[in-house]
Amino acid sequence: MNAPSAIGLDRPAAAASLELSPRPYLYLSVGLIAGSVIALQICIMRIFSVGSWAHFGSLVVSLAMLGFGLTSAVMCIAKR
To answer: Higher confidence at residue 37 or residue 1?
Structure first.
């Protein structure tokens, strides 16, 4: 099984524009990536809090979450 068909992206361009139904593997991979990024942000915050830079760690995590939210909003608006 090749990778594009595993995630549901093996359709021609015309059919993909009409109907997009990703496979569960796509949802699983996006969930795992999002969870690992959040875990990395928590680790960064803990590392900075040990060095008495707790405010800097919170800033890093806040900016990363802002980036995720802004990217999602832009992608949602651009899709229309």
So the answer is: 37
End-to-end CA distance of the chain: 32
Query: Which pLDDT score, from 0 to 100, does residue 7 have?
Result: 56
Give the separation between CA 73 and CA 75, rounded to whole angstroms.
5
The answer to whether 45 touches 61, Cβ cutoff 8 Å, is yes
**Tokens 């993909």 sit at which residue?**
16
pLDDT of residue 32: 92
**pTM recorded for the entire structure:** 0.50
Tokens 């830079």 correspond to what residue? 53
CA distance 37 to 61: 10
Residues 47/57, Cβ–Cβ less than 8 Å: yes
